[in-house]
Amino acid sequence: MSEVEANDYIKHIPYIIPFITLLIGAWIGNRNAINKDRRAEFLTISAPIHDTLIAQLHAEGDRIFSNPVSKADLLRLRSRYFHRTWFDRIKGIGFDRAVKEYQEQYKKSYHIDSSGRAVFSNHNSYRQTINALLKYTPIK
């Protein structure tokens, strides 16, 4: 490579570096904007679930069982947010376990006595499953 050709390449560097910087900046800005939108969508779905779980957690006595989170809401959260990356898929497995345990504990925690009244038990184990499910609906 002759000295003249090298000088020609050097002349173009001041135009190339800002262009590359512009592309990197646009890519980073786009990723941040998309992540903010995803977070807002996640909060739209998870906030009612989180509020219901918190209300159940702080309820006294048998009122803890009065308003369980619907399976449809939990499935909507699962289908929307625990499938994007391999980490989300692994997190989704834990979420599925927590949902299953939450539903099983709800079914195990009450029965109908001979007079037709609902009798509740296992308050502490139900609270533990609520805490496990709350890990997947953080509000930030």
Order of helices and strands: HHHEEH
How many distinct beta strands?
2
Give the overall average pLDDT: 80
Largest sheet: 2 strands, antiparallel
Q: What class would the helix/strand composition place it in?
A: mainly alpha
Number of helices: 4
Distance between the termini: 58 Å
Q: How do the strands line up in the largest sheet?
A: 1-2
Poorly predicted runs: none
Summarize the structure.
The chain has 4 helices and 2 strands, in the order αααββα.
Structure description:
- This protein is mainly α.
- Helices cover 72% and strands 4% of the residues.
- It has helices spanning 3-57, 71-81, 86-108, 123-134, and strands at residues 110-112, 118-120.
- A two-stranded antiparallel ribbon has the order 1-2.
- Strand 1 and strand 2 (118-120) form a beta hairpin.
- The longest helix has 55 residues, at 3-57.
- The radius of gyration is 26 Å and the shape is rod-shaped.
Write the layout of secondary structure elements.
Elements: H1 3-57, H2 71-81, H3 86-108, E1 110-112, E2 118-120, H4 123-134
Antiparallel strand pairs: 1-2
Helix pairs in contact: 1-2, 1-4, 2-3, 3-4
